Every structure is written in structure tokens, then in C-alpha cells.
Amino acid sequence: MTGTFVGMPAFPEAARAALADSQLRHNLAHATSTIRAKRARVVGEVDNWEELRVAAAAVKDGVLGDLERTLVQLEESLTANGAVVHWARDAAEACAVVAEVAKAHGVEEVVKVKSMATQEIGLNEALAAEGIAAWETDLAELIVQLGDDLPSHILVPAIHRNRAEIREIFLTRMAAAGRPAPDDLTDEPAVLAAAARAHLREKFLRAKVGVSGANFAVADSGTLVVVESEGNGRMCLTLPEVLVSVVGIEKVLPTWESLDVFLRLLPRSSTGERMNPYTSTWSGVTPGDGPQEVHVVLVDNGRTNALADEVGRQALRCIRCSACLNVCPVYERVGGHAYGSVYPGPIGAILTPLLRGTGDPQTDALPYASSLCGACFEVCPVRIDIPEVLVHLRSQVVDAHRADTVPRPESLAMRAASWTFARAGRLARAERLAGVGTRLAGRVGLRPWTSARDLPDPPAESFRAWWQRTDGGRRG
């Protein structure tokens, strides 16, 4: 199952390296603060924002509680509309379907709408292995692809890059992938966007196969929905002769009416806009209009495992808005690459372990990549209690190591604490030794821990000693 970037270190090591990159921290702080401010302004305009959050969570929970029936209805609706529906248990099966469709049409390249699902399953790499180039058409995804980089944000994959870096990528890498950047390219955003637009237009016009994800899939009408800000998605969805949409099974909604609340929550939470500039919907095949062959790949890839977790299943409400990333103090300082996961930030810290399961050192580190401040829950448009799930997953990681032959330091510390607190006499002796022990630990034993945390000085006198010394003790 694809879910992490292979070969990357676990979060503690990767975060330490990221913190040493001052340019990265500057880029992240500027970008996330800008998005946060935009979101706060447009959310503040909505009087019933909390009611919308509650309504969206209820819709999602209702679907997850009746997922099998709703998915069957979606398949029936899509099939009636002329689409071909494929079911994929994992990443390998999903990638194989897309590759098979592309090869059936003899193409050597496809154009793609920005899609977290296709990143999750490693589609670009799988197609490349079959000799098929998958071209990203979202501006930020294009920057990442041309720079031979990895995405670091759900909404803005190139958030870790500044304008000067993007200009350099376009000048040095764009020609090898198609139309080159103009020689007089500057780092003005409008100029960079124009260069990307001219580069991509050639690909749009010659592409026979397009690949998309979907923000939502409406079961009663068989309608898929993509919201975006640039228009590249609209081009991918309408110009190619063949369209393949890769959709996680949790993206399904029951009715067209239920879509309303999400179209009010998503743009405000993600881009800080009242509505997305482009909202594209398609329902199978329409003769003479748009792709004349439509495939929909419904992907599990660990989602049923997450659904079986009574605490963690709420993560499947996620609508990929990235609001939690933009308020997270940890993400703002280390960026998305430190998580080593396709899904970075707070939502990635819970979603990746839920999809993959525990047991891998890289994945097991993710639930600890948080201060548990709760800001992520406050901004989540579908009310995912990320801190609750983080603590729940931490317990799973700990439980998985209880039978280890060599106990972990944390386990030994907790056993020692349990033994000490079990008897009053032991606790009293520990209190008397606390002053010396704490000072010694601060200087020697816990130095890696105390280098980033304050270790309070113990009081000069314990409560037990005070009680015995005062009238309270004598009255006792």
C-alpha cells in the first residue's frame, strides 16, 4: 500500500533537518499566515458557520454508516450514465486500471487534474513504469514535477518554494518537458503563471486521455465534482477523448442536495474564497460533449480498515481542504516533507496510520508529530477531532510494543512510576530524592529532552512534609 514517501526518515529526524532550513521556515510562515488570514475573513462572514460544520459532519457520518449501499447506488447511477466503474482494493489494482485504459488507446502521455488520491496510489510512477508520462497541470503540482520534488501541502504542493526558486525551475527544467519558458522570464506571479499556461496548453490540446480525482461523488445522480481555482481541471475534464477518474470510496455523498453544505464549507476552508472559480461536474458520457469514454475507479486502499476503527473513522470525513495544515504550529515550522507522507500535517498524522496500520517506524512516528493544541479541530469544516484520534493512535503504537523483548525507555519510565505510586512509603522516599534527581536528570540523563523543554524545579518541601510539619499534620 502506498502512503509514505519511500526512503524518507521518520518524523523526528526529518523535522530536525527542516528546522535548520531558515529559508523553508520563512516560506512556510509567509504562506500559511496569508492563507489563515484569508480564511478567517470569509469564515467570519458566515453567521451559521458552526451549524454548517455540524451538518457536514452528520452527512459524512451518515454515509460512512451506510457506505456499502451508497456505493452500490453510485455505481448503478454512473453505469446508467454510460460510465464504466472499476473497483480497486489497493493502489496496485487502481494503477493497473488506469494503465490498461491508457494502453488500450495507444497513448504515451496523459494529462492530470490535481488529485490526492492519485498521489496516494503512486499513479505517476506506475504509469512511468509502463512507458506513459503523466503530466501534472495544476500550477503548484507542475512546479513540483518539473523540480523533481515532492509535494509538501495538500492544497499548495509547492508551498515550500518561493518565486525566485520557481523561476529557476521553469528556466532550467521546462524545455525538457515541452514548450520552454521565455528567456526573459521574471519572478512576477503573473509572468510565471503565463509561462505555465503556454507550456500546458500544448499538452491539453494533444492529450487523448485525461486523469482526475474527485472532491465529491454524488450517489443518486452519479455525478462527480471537482472544485479548483485555475481552470486547468476544466481543461482536463473536457478536452480529452477519454477520462479516468480515481476516487476514494469515502468521497461519496448521498444526494445532490447534500452537496450544498460542502460547497459552502470547502472553498472558505481551503483557499479563503467564498466559492471556487471553477466547479466542474460530470455524469458519465454526454454524446458530442466532453469525453466520450469515461471510467471511474473506486479505491479502497485501506479505507475499510479506517472505517473499522470506531475512533479513527471520523478521519474519513476529510474533504482535503488543508485548513488544519495552515493553523498547525508544527507544520508551519517543519513543512510537509518532514512527515514523509503523501498526506502531511495534522490530517496526515492520523490518516496515514489509519490507512496503513501501525508497525512501520515512519508511520508510528506520525501520531506524535503534534503538540495537541487543538487548533486543527477548531478549523476543520467537518469537525474531525484530530487530537482525539492522535491520542488514540499513540495508544495503538504503545500497545503494539508491550511485548517487545527490550522495553522502550518510555515503557520503563511508566513501569517505574507505577511501582513508585503503588505504595505511600515509596512515594515519600521518591519525593525526598526529587530535588537531587531532577537536577541530575536535567544535567545528564534528560538533556536531549530538556534542550527543548523547561524542566521545573521541584518545590523545597513536599506537600506530605508540609502536612506533617503543620497543624494539619498534628490534627491528623
List the helices and strands and how they pair.
Blueprint: H1 11-19, H2 22-43, H3 49-65, H4 67-80, E1 84-88, H5 91-104, E2 109-112, H6 116-120, H7 123-129, E3 133-136, H8 139-146, H9 163-177, H10 189-206, E4 209-212, E5 216-218, E6 223-228, H11 232-238, E7 242-248, E8 252-253, H12 259-270, E9 278-282, E10 293-299, H13 303-307, H14 323-327, H15 329-334, H16 345-356, H17 361-365, H18 375-379, H19 386-400, H20 409-421, H21 424-445, H22 447-450, H23 463-469, H24 471-475
Parallel strand pairs: 1-10, 2-3, 2-4, 4-7, 5-8, 7-10
Antiparallel strand pairs: 5-6, 6-9
Helix pairs in contact: 3-12, 9-10, 16-19
Explain what this protein looks like in three dimensions.
- The chain is of the alpha/beta class.
- Among the domains are: 53-303, Rossmann fold (3-Layer(aba) Sandwich); 418-475, no CATH class.
- Helices cover 53% and strands 10% of the residues.
- It has 24 helices and 10 strands.
- The strands form 2 sheets. The chain has a 6-stranded parallel beta sheet, sandwiched between helices. It has a 4-stranded mixed beta sheet with strand order 8-5-6-9.
- A hairpin with a 4-residue loop joins strand 5 and strand 6.
- Helix 3 (49-65) packs across helix 12 (259-270) and helix 16 (345-356) crosses helix 19.
- The longest helix is centred in the N-terminal third of the chain and has 22 residues, at 22-43.
- It starts with 10 loop residues before the first helix and ends with a helix.
- This is Lactate utilization protein B.
- InterPro entries: 4Fe4S_Fe-S-bd (IPR017896), 4Fe4S_Fe_S_CS (IPR017900), FTHF_cligase-like_sf (IPR024185), Helical_ferredxn (IPR009051), LUD_dom (IPR003741), LutB/LldF (IPR004452), LutB_C (IPR024569), NagB/RpiA_transferase-like (IPR037171).
- Residues 315-384 form the 4Fe-4S ferredoxin-type domain.
- Residues 73-299 form the LUD domain.
